[in-house]
Design goal:
By secondary structure, this protein is α/β, with parallel strands linked by helices. It has three domains: 211 residues, no CATH class; 33 residues, no CATH class; 42 residues, no CATH class. Helix content is 35%, strand content 10%. It starts with a helix and ends with a strand.
Length: 312
């Protein structure tokens, strides 16, 4: 491969990843109701089971260090292998060109589902549920106990709409993916070749994957996977994904920066800064003690004026 071809391929990949970030949050997901599913026993792998955690009524703060990638808070070992394989085909990569597997996206999803069963927004688990329409409101549209008709461009205002929790969606989704994979290739999804896995995902995207997907459509589950893959690839490493900030490096995102100078802001070109996670952000505010002195920023200046402890 020529240098120009390699550069174009890298740029195309970077453009694709930026598109994933922009569009992942805009995909509507609708799931039908069912009863909770019992957790399958963990298989013998490198993963360890994490002791059950009580539900925290408050939204948890980001941990100061990334979660342990060998511990599972939510998934069984089999579920973790399957979800990792799915995300690795949505955002494929290699050690030299990292994707979802290298970024630890499955760890992000596992930790996300451990808190509040994965709920992160307004949640509606009882009817009426939103029925989406595009364009003019259908003539048969009539609000009932079971259904409220909502324009597609307004659905984001209505939060999560399903009797299933996100945790239950993943448990059912893994079972459905494996069921469909066995109907097509006589083995579970994580045991398939890359090309066979791509074929399964293509069927999910098109809606042709029907066997196993009785509780919700394969398209809905793919939308969940795609959104969470993007979140895990590009969120702060404190949440378990974006390991070594590989996602930020791919798209040129600087991460958490304390501030930019006046000159930086006036510069029309991109400001080159190495990516920095929240955990490395300098933990002080102007006017507070930081080490041996206080830093007082002066308006109109790019310099910091230190005021020592013995200053009157």
């Amino acid at each position: 491969m020529s240098d120009d071809q390699a550069q174009n391929e890298h740029l195309s990949r970077r453009g694709f990843l930026k598109g994933v970030v922009i569009t992942a949050a805009s995909i509507p997901v609708v799931a039908a109701g069912c009863s909770p599913v019992e957790q399958m026993p963990p298989a013998q792998t490198g993963y360890q089971a994490w002791p059950p955690q009580p539900l925290n009524p408050d939204v948890p703060l980001a941990p100061r260090v990334p979660p342990n990638t060998t511990l599972l808070r939510t998934f069984t070992s089999h579920e973790a292998r399957t979800v990792e394989a799915l995300t690795a085909r949505i955002l494929p990569g290699t050690p030299d060109d990292p994707g979802a597997r290298e970024a630890g996206v499955v760890t992000y999803i596992d930790n996300m589902l451990a808190y509040q069963e994965g709920f992160v927004e307004s949640t509606y688990r009882e009817p009426p549920y939103a029925q989406i329409y595009s364009g003019d409101e259908p003539s048969e549209a009539q609000d009932t106990y079971e259904t409220v008709w909502i324009a597609a461009d307004q659905i984001e205002r209505y939060g999560y709409q399903s009797i299933l929790s996100p945790r239950e969606v993943y448990r059912l989704g893994v079972i459905a993916v494996d069921t469909y994979a066995r109907s097509k290739y006589d083995t579970g999804f994580s045991s398939l070749t890359d090309n066979q896995q791509d074929s399964i995902i293509e069927d999910m995207v098109s809606g042709d994957a029907v066997v196993g997907f009785e509780q919700f459509s394969s398209q809905a589950f793919f939308a969940v996977l795609r959104r969470h893959s993007a979140e895990g690839m590009f969120s702060d490493p404190a949440y378990g994904g974006n390991r070594d900030m590989v996602g930020w490096q791919l798209i040129g995102y600087p991460g958490a920066q304390r501030a930019y100078t006046e000159t930086d802001i006036r510069t029309e070109t991109d400001i080159p800064r190495e990516p920095q996670p929240l955990a490395d952000l300098h933990p002080f505010s102007p006017g507070e003690y930081a080490g041996s002195h206080v830093v007082l920023p002066v308006s109109g200046s790019e310099e910091d004026y230190p005021v020592h402890h013995d200053h009157p």
